[in-house]
Write a structure and sequence with these properties.
Elements (H helix, E strand, L loop, with lengths): L8 H12 L5 H8 L3 H13 L19 E9 L4 H11 L5 E6 L6 E7 L2 H13 L4 E8 L12 H6 L6
Helix pairs in contact: 1-2, 2-3
């Protein structure tokens, strides 16, 4: 599926740059993408208004705040009616430790990314989710040992053009 928003190469340059440098000034952004300041600002505002840019945030270094664990949990729910999916999603959404939740195809129904201070906290969270009776039939978890690759942002140019990175 191609983009619903009509974006040209300058819009893409703006998005790519803002993914890397979200706090840059409009002056710096316009210089980086090759537009004068006024059109650059107008394009950025348009991208915000149409919802392509959802917001701005800080890239927080969790390791500087203290110890933590990142866990991916594969969750299978017992029933597969629309109501059952909504029940699980609403229940999972109550916990801040669940930072990402994906409804996936394959051998399980959801993939959760959980960030907790330690394994005991993670285990207590999973026990709480089971006690909440939100439809979990079974789950399997993987504790992240290290993260050898992390990219900030998405491969916007590849998504927009459909052209692979290896060509």
């Amino acid at each position: 599926m191609r983009s619903a928003a009509s974006l040209d190469r300058f819009d893409m340059k703006i998005l790519v740059h803002l993914q890397r440098e979200g706090r840059c000034s409009n002056v710096d952004l316009s210089a980086a993408v090759g537009l004068s300041e006024s059109p650059c600002l107008a394009r950025t505002k348009r991208l915000q208004e149409i919802g392509v840019i959802r917001g701005y945030g800080a890239d927080v270094a969790l390791e500087k705040l203290g110890s933590h664990v990142i866990v991916f949990s594969e969750v299978t729910i017992g029933n597969h009616r629309p109501h059952d999916f909504r029940k699980f999603e609403t229940g999972a959404g109550k916990y801040d430790e669940i930072v990402e939740c994906y409804n996936v195809s394959g051998g399980y129904d959801y993939l959760l990314k959980i960030v907790a201070p330690d394994i005991a906290h993670f285990q207590a969270l999973m026990e709480r989710l089971l006690e909440d009776d939100i439809g979990i039939e079974k789950f399997s978890s993987r504790i992240v040992l290290r993260r050898p690759l992390e990219r900030r942002g998405y491969p916007l140019t590849i998504i927009a053009t459909g052209k692979p990175s290896w060509e």
